[in-house]
Amino acid sequence: MKCRFVAFLLGTGLAVPSAPHPYVDGPAGCVFPDPVRAVGCVTAPTDWLVGQVRHRLGEVPGACWDAHAWNPRSDHPHGRACDYTIGQIGVFPTETQVARGWRLARWLRTHARALHVHYVIFHGRIWSWEHDAEGWRRYDGGGAYDPADVTGGHFDHVHVSTVDKPPAVLFPAAAARA
Ligand SMILES: [Zn+2]
After folding, report:
1. 11, 37, 84, 126 — which has fewest CB within 10 A?
2. How far apart are CA 46 and CA 63, in angstroms?
3. How is residue 129 annotated by DSSP?
4. How do beta strands 137-138 and 157-162 pair?
5. Each residue's pLDDT tens digit, 124-153
6. Separation of CA 25 and ligand 1 centre (Å)
């Protein structure tokens, strides 16, 4: 037990979190109060995802709804995205923190179908259904962010976007391969 705890602290031997309960159905729109902060709203799949992350990975600090006025294409003001802080915002994470970030990011991708995940961005990389065959691609900032910046390149947080409809319906070719 002690060894497992030490391994956890060192960021090595992190156990893979178990599978989430899949999202099934819910009301349309940005109708749930933000489950992380007291402002804004999230969609039913986002609300479900937040609950499953908490259930399987414990408390990871983060934020979902946000005006994100500087990025008109953001999913945050629609309640379809959450940012999970890895270490401290504005600071490049340690190796241990990076390992924990990838643990969350990979878990979200692995269970993208069950959790209605659309895409995940972390540590200068992005995975999306549209480019699933390419795996974790280099993240170029999407025209809105500087990918070399600690926050713009998503080094200090894991971004996850959700879709309302099942990914198997929206991205059938990729979902058939996954
Ligand atoms: Zn984000």
Report:
1. 37
2. 11
3. G
4. unpaired
5. 999 999 999 999 999 999 888 999 999 999
6. 24
Give distance in angstroms: CA of 57 to centre of ligand 1.
Answer: 19
124 to 57, 109, 128, 137, 145: CA distances (angstroms): 22, 15, 14, 8, 11
Q: How far is the CA of 72 from the centre of ligand 1 (A)?
A: 12
User: Can you give the pLDDT at residue 177?
Assistant: 82
Centre of ligand 1 from the C-alpha of residue 159, in Å: 4
- pTM equals 0.91
Structural domains of the chain ordered from first start: 29-177 (3.30.1380)
Residues at Cβ < 5 Å from ligand 1 ion: 83, 159
Q: Where are the beta strands (DSSP E) in 9-167?
A: 32-33, 41-42, 62-63, 81-85, 117-122, 125-128, 137-138, 157-162
pLDDT digits over 53-95, tens only? 999 999 999 999 998 888 888 999 999 999 999 999 999 999 9
Whether 33 and 119 have beta carbons less than 8 Å apart is answered as: no
Cα 77 to ligand 1 centre (Å): 10
For residue 26, report the distance from its CA to the centre of ligand 1, in Å.
Answer: 23
Take residue 153 and report the two structure tokens written for it: 């390149």
